[in-house]
Design a protein that fits this description.
5 helices; 79% helix; globular; mainly alpha
């Protein structure tokens, strides 16, 4: 018995988009960490950023390749922590526009990628639609 899952092509596209988004997000922030370290002439704080950024961002971007559900949840949690934590730590010291801009670049991509991973997994596991052929 062959079962065609509903929107299987859509779930493949959603997973591809989520993987690409997470990887581009991670590489951008790794580049930012390296540029920061170079600009600070590799101070102790800059070296810490240089060690933490690649592990944190690349690790969370590559985890969904092993387990989409776990990776999606990790990306959602990470995005939510940034969404709540960054404004809390920077409010009053950084202009509101800068906070919003950073949230769009730092928190929104993992939230969207995590949601796409979880939504694609639900589509993949969904029941076949009545209009599709079941053999």
């Amino acid at each position: 018995m062959t079962v065609k899952y509903r929107n299987n092509e859509k779930s493949k596209r959603m997973r591809s988009l989520a993987k690409s988004l997470a990887l581009v997000w991670a590489l951008w922030w790794i580049f930012f960490g390296v540029a920061y370290a170079v600009g600070e002439k590799f101070s102790k704080q800059a070296l810490l950023v240089l060690l933490v950024f690649p592990l944190l961002f690349l690790g969370s971007a590559m985890l969904p390749r092993l387990s989409e559900r776990t990776g999606g949840i990790v990306l959602l949690v990470e995005g939510f922590i940034i969404l709540v934590g960054y404004p809390w730590f920077t409010y009053g010291r950084v202009p509101l526009f800068a906070i919003v801009a950073v949230l769009f670049m730092l928190a929104l991509p993992p939230l969207v990628a995590g949601f796409l991973f979880l939504a694609a997994g639900r589509r993949k596991m969904g029941a076949p639609e009545a209009s599709q052929e079941i053999q």
